[in-house]
Amino acid sequence: MYIEILNHVVPWGILVIMQIASQDTAAGWITEFLALEPPRSKSLVMTVIGDAIAPHGGRAWLGSLIELLAPFGVTDRLLRTSVFRLAQEGWLVARRDGRRSLYAIAPQALARLERANGRIYAAPGLHWEGRWTLVLAPNGSIDAQLRAALRKELEWEGFAMLAPGVLAHPAPNADSLGEILARTGAAGKVFLCTASELPGGASRPLCELAQDAWDLRPEIDSYRQFSATFAPLLALLQRDGAPLPAAAFAIRTLLIHAYRRVQLHDPMLPVELLPDPWPGSSAYALAGAIYRLVAGPAEDHVLQVLRAEEPDAPLADSAYFARFGGL
User: Fold this and answer.
1) Cα 305 from chain centre
2) Domains and CATH numbers, the chain
């Protein structure tokens, strides 16, 4: 049964919990968040894959995923549809064992996932060396379909289109750029170069190009909204301590899901080219503080669920413990 609250359709079970859970507790915060900002199923599954499954060998049985996602209102049907679509998109591979299904991160997706996790969990603070990297695709060098695919991937990576066929970034990740060119089929078909300010050229300072290339107001608003939403949760956790494992896992998942949605739209400009103060820095500090408070019991829950289906499921890897500057 579903009830509409404030223009959001809320499962009846969540509504009952909301009625009995105080908003002045972590449990109350979870239920209110789920009611007012229900996450999309496929996107939430991807968050759980990256945050909880990747550190434990990058694989999980369908039954474990069902148990992990059920408290968020993700039904068996929605979960099966989500993992099927993620497999179609190349993120997951599936293997049948009788009536059971095992889902693992696809080998070709590992590098992309690791870079995404690096952006999420690593501290912001790139420094600018005064140069820009340009990707040039003159007319006729690539067809329209490849041009559109390349632009989409590079803009997701933080590049800005300065002019038709000209994309630029002041501090891109070289490995990411190479992987994008190879994956899209643009390697060897476009020009890559760096540009620096010409001495005595009487031009505008090259640092001002960032102001023309990016409108950072949406990112600023998103980071501020994230902090406004999660700062009360940090205060609750600092007052009451870490919740029980299942609730800690729910908090960790919702935290990373919300932060990932904001942070992966950030063009990741060097600090010298960002407004001061940059709200992304305070949002990262807030996310890290909450994550550290719930990480232990959340991991207990993840491991218990995984080992119910696979008794030898590994402990979290070393990369997990390096998140947010060290857990």
Assistant:
1) 23
2) 39-125+215-327 (1.10.10.10), 131-196 (3.30.70)
